[in-house]
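Protein modeling request. Please complete all fields; requests missing the sequence field cannot be processed.
Requester role: graduate student
Desired output: 3D structure, token encoding
Chains: 1
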Amino acid sequence: MSHLFRLSTGFLLGLLLLMAAPTARAAIYCVTNVSDLQIALNAAAASFNDDEIKLKQGIYAVQQRLFYNSPNNGWLFISGGWIQDGENNCAQQVPAAANTVLTGSAMYPVLGLYFNPSTTPSAGPRYGLYNLSIRDGYGDSATFQRGGGVQMTALADVQTEFFLDNVIIANNIGFFGGGADLYVRRGLIRIVNSLFANNSSPTTAYGHFAATSVSGNNPYGVLIANSSFVNGQCPGSGGRGCGIGVIVGGGQRLDIINSLFSGNAISDVNIEGAASGGFGNGTAFADHSLIGALSGTLPLSASNGLVGDPRFVDVPGQDFRLRDDSPFINRGLGTIPVYGYPPADLAGNLRLRFGALDPGAYENQTWDFIFADGFQ
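Delivered output (376 residues):
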């Protein structure tokens, strides 16, 4: 494991600069195996500074959940897709989330990130995952393990942000939130350019993820943009379905923009408030998205809704790119309200092609607008 003390470049540094961060110098770790990844997580958790962990391309098979539990408010970013040049194992990043895989091998939960200060600090951290896959995580429902893929939790009443950008979360199992369990007492949960596929909660609900934002320093509690949620499975619980489950407290909002929900059992989106816990009820909005069945206690104010078959390339093979004959090409016309997009889609291709964004995690690269209009 190499431990380099220098400024980060590229996308993650851009994210760091989007809002004021502590001025201490960032630590950067380059890891090539699971053992070194846990060592880097331990070191980062003990640090008061910001940290970036770079994962060399490959498969990281865990034998217990990777664990980051920090009382400090330094930011943490974990990014995949790094390749070797000479002696530097993390010399260059290839933007393709499928090339770096954290897997639980259908036996173990994969990753847990926890912000756990002893006293409430003046500012909270941002934790980010970028350009990687989390697959085949197993959270035991008998012991109430949430988020078989990833669990991210911040209980402190201070603005904290979780970013999942260009991430694949697939084939995970867990109790309420098979793919992911995400909770901020105060803050933002952001999911952009990401794919949740074939996740399940075998005894409860929310196959793909459960997300809660109780309060915040601004109204954006849960933001989902240009992401795809396919084939979530569960038996259901109290009317709740198998896609995603979101709780937003008073003054907070859920935004779903340019996103696709398909093949999820019972319901695609379940929305609830936090009034039962004394925190009031938030609001929910969707724009230019494919959302079928809804459940929950809060209404969804939807505009420019998409209808029909998205025509994915190969659903059984988990290829969720849009075919050239998809009716949704160039239909991702909603505007993301905060922070903007990474420059590449989930496969590393240009995020903008043929004049407008496509909804979902992938941008079609082969559609011919001349032939699509019937001219030859």
